Amino acid sequence: MAEQAATWPETGIGLLYSAVRGAHVCLSRAADYLVAVNGDNVPGTKAMNMGDIVLTPGFNMSKERRTTLANHEARHRAQWAIATAMAGPFAFPVAYAVESFFFPGSRNLFERQAGLGSGGYRHVGLGPVLGPAQIGALVAVVALIAAAVGRRHLRAGRRMPGRHRRDRLSRAGPPRSV
Ligand SMILES: [Zn+2]
């Protein structure tokens, strides 16, 4: 119940989206979890978890397999709940996207926690995938940090004109009395 409460903003967005797309929303009683069938997905994903609801183009699988998948998706709800409590409703999708970028598919930590087998993932490896895109992103992040640090140094230097003035005064010697 706490997880449902913590993820209601995402669930709301998921429900709204499903309503707009005319999806059939039902409740998986096994996982106490909402499933929106025929809700369109982000391209390339089989099922998309939005807090307490999963959007899917439809399950072409046995009832048993469906229950297993609903349990897997319900575990993502726990991750949504924790991330939302820590950093707001968009924390999980952002963290998930960053994680997926470097650790796609079965390498993804969130998927590993939710259960690879139940999510329909085949285990392929643990390490990050470092293709040109990933290396490019890392270089861009390092460049951004370097730029931010450099700018702070510049600002700090500009903020101390007083010191220079004092230097000039001391070089000119103490004010002479007449
Ligand atoms: Zn998953």
Question: Can you offer a commentary on this structure?
Answer:
With 178 residues, the protein is α+β, with helices and mostly antiparallel strands. It folds into two domains: 118 residues, no CATH class; 41 residues. It is 58% helix and 10% strand. The chain contains eight helices and four strands, in the order ααββββαααααα. Strands 1-2-4-3 form a four-stranded mixed β-sheet. The chain binds zinc ion. The site of zinc ion has 5 residues, from α3 and α5.
List the helices and strands and how they pair.
Elements: H1 2-6, H2 8-20, E1 24-28, E2 33-37, E3 48-50, E4 53-56, H3 63-87, H4 91-102, H5 109-114, H6 116-119, H7 132-158, H8 161-172
The structure holds zinc ion.
What is the strand tally? Answer: 4
C-alpha termini separation: 84 Å
* Approximate shape: elongated
Number of domains: 2
Task: Give a short overview.
By secondary structure, the chain is of the alpha+beta class. About 60% of the residues lie in helices and about 10% in strands. Bound molecules: zinc ion.
Keywords:
alpha+beta; 8 helices; 10% strand; binds zinc ion
